Each structure stands twice: as C-alpha cells, then as structure tokens.
Amino acid sequence: MSANKSAIKKIKIMLGAELRRVREEKGLSLEEAARAVGIERVNILRQLEEGHGAKVFFIFKLLELYRKRVTVKLVDC
C-alpha cells in the first residue's frame, strides 16, 4: 500500500472513531444511526469504523444527525 493510501485509510479510521464516539455520546445505537440516515448498519461499519471507502454524502448525513461539523488542523511533521 502506498504512503498516500495508508494515510487516507488512517484518516478515515480516525474520523470513524470520532463519529462513533459522538454517536455513543448521543445515546444512539449503530442501527438507529443507520436508519436515521437511510443506510444499512453494515455500511457504517465498513465505510467508517473499518476505514473502507466512506462517501462524503454519508458523512454529511451523520454530521447533520449528530449536529456536528468538521474542522481540520494541519500540524508540522
């Protein structure tokens, strides 16, 4: 796996972990979150929590459900 693909997968996993934390904080099960945004439960697991190809529209639906927004901070290596 190239360095870029590895970095992208790591970012997806980090985002997935943060979305999971917020979902649990809101008291929602995986099934409830999936139903609320109109996708299957397995897609949340595959696309976010395991770092597979998350779709941007899917992420925005979850952010809207959780009443959150994303900010990005770049730091020196």
| Estimated radius of gyration | 13 Å
The name of the CATH topology is 434 Repressor (Amino-terminal Domain)
Sequence of secondary-structure elements: HHHH
Contiguous low-pLDDT stretches (5 residues minimum) are: none
Approximately how much beta-strand content do the residues carry?
under 5%
Helix count, per DSSP?
4
> Which percent bin holds the helix content?
55-70%
Dominant shape: globular
Structural class: mainly alpha
Distance between the termini: 21 Å
What's the pLDDT, averaged over the residues?
A: 83
Q: Largest sheet at a glance?
A: none
Main CATH class: Mainly Alpha
Number of domains: 1
CATH homologous superfamily name?
lambda repressor-like DNA-binding domains
> Which architecture per CATH?
Orthogonal Bundle
Structure description:
The chain has 77 residues and is an all-alpha fold. It has one domain: lambda repressor-like DNA-binding domains (434 Repressor (Amino-terminal Domain)), CATH 1.10.260. It contains four helices and no strands. The chain has helices spanning 3-25, 30-37, 41-49, 56-66. The longest helix has 23 residues, at 3-25. It starts with a helix and ends in an 11-residue tail after the last helix. The relative contact order is 0.16. The mean pLDDT is 83.
